[in-house]
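Note to self: user wants both folds in one dump. Writing first protein now.
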Amino acid sequence: MSKIKHKIMIVSGKGGVGKSSVAASLSLATAVKGKKVGLLDADIHGPSIPKILGLEKSKLLISPLGIVPVIGPLNLKVVSTQFILPEEDAPVIWRGPLKGRLIAEFLANVNWGELDYLYVDLPPGTGDEPLSIAQYIKNMSGAVIVTIPSDLSRVVVKKAVRFCQKLNVPILGIIENMNGFTCPKCGTTYNIFGEGAGRKIAVEMNIPYLGSIPIDPRISECNDKGEPFIIKYEDAPATKIILQIAEEIISKLGRKSA
């Protein structure tokens, strides 16, 4: 871990907000900017990063220097529980201490090499895995909180914000995912999941607002096929916003380390 310049947690207060999809896209967007990037899928019970990146058949290897990450698109280095399961649909039925040991193993014994950024995709909520990650990585660069525009998510997002604050993890900002669908035929925008809750929370809690990612059905299609959306659809509005968010994160952390 000493050769990794910046470590960033991707957090959500609840499931179903597209956090892992955002984590994968943000990691790739950072790699597009010319950075050396790693992605740790710390969602032990529901790892989805390998599927999103088309790596679900891959396995971790052991070398004299430690665990070797799987190499994904744009030379992204990826580690996930999915890579050590005997079968793709094998459940992980572990209690807290065992999960803590696995996370410690990934953090201590993976040979990440030199990285500019390591993104850590956490499971939703504020349970064992997020707590273990935050405690093991003492010099966490920051957290990105992913939510949706619905008011229903506001309370749980605030819990995620408080969680980061209590653990002294700087909050880089909030991303509002699934923010409106624009009909390609008539141009009308439909706010299917509500409107503006992420921005409201950012204002209320005085934390940065990184941006809103619109609904694009092709994102789900790409995730199902293991084809990274931002690579396949370079000119899509959602891709441009994700690249802008990655640039802002790079700029923020660059200023802090300068």
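First done. Writing the second protein, which came from a different request thread.
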Amino acid sequence: MIEVLCAKELGDAAKKRISEIFVDAFGHHLSFFSKDKNKLAKALEHMFVLDVFHIALFEGEIAGMAACTNSDVHSVNHDQSDLRRHFGIYKGTIANVVFKREFQKPIKVGKRTALIEFFATDPKYRRRGVAKAIMNHLLSLPQYDEYILEVTNTDPRVIRLYEKLGFREFERIKQKYSRLSGLDYMVYMRYTK
């Protein structure tokens, strides 16, 4: 059985697991800072805002996660001194600049529009309904009428999954430095109740 709940219900104990899942899903984009997944997870653990993260428990274990916010609250709030402590002064300072630009850029949406971010499932729980359970939970939140998410064009299976759930693409933005990042486009998708 899969149970989905707000991460704040588990408290700070959830941050470690959220960070591990985050690094497993998105860590390849952060390999400049460290190629060691454990080091990355430890360095990022402090930054997740539990009030906006929703987690799926599969047989009592955190199996997946997603952040859902209306842009009044950022889903991550990093601390430059923590980043420097884990990555060193040079890479920690660069991480601070990059994270501000990438994770805390203001995206203004209406009060009843949600931004879904950092949607990820632990690899050992994939194809077990975890992602669908999280998405169904988010889409049932009464305070939102519309949902927007951002995905990369590098995995067409993910885009097809979101389309099956009712999301429709409304914009593609060409990425600068696509050869370096490996991303050609960011794809923006919308779901309206």
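Dump finished. Worth passing along: The CA atoms of residues 148 and 190 lie 5 Å apart.
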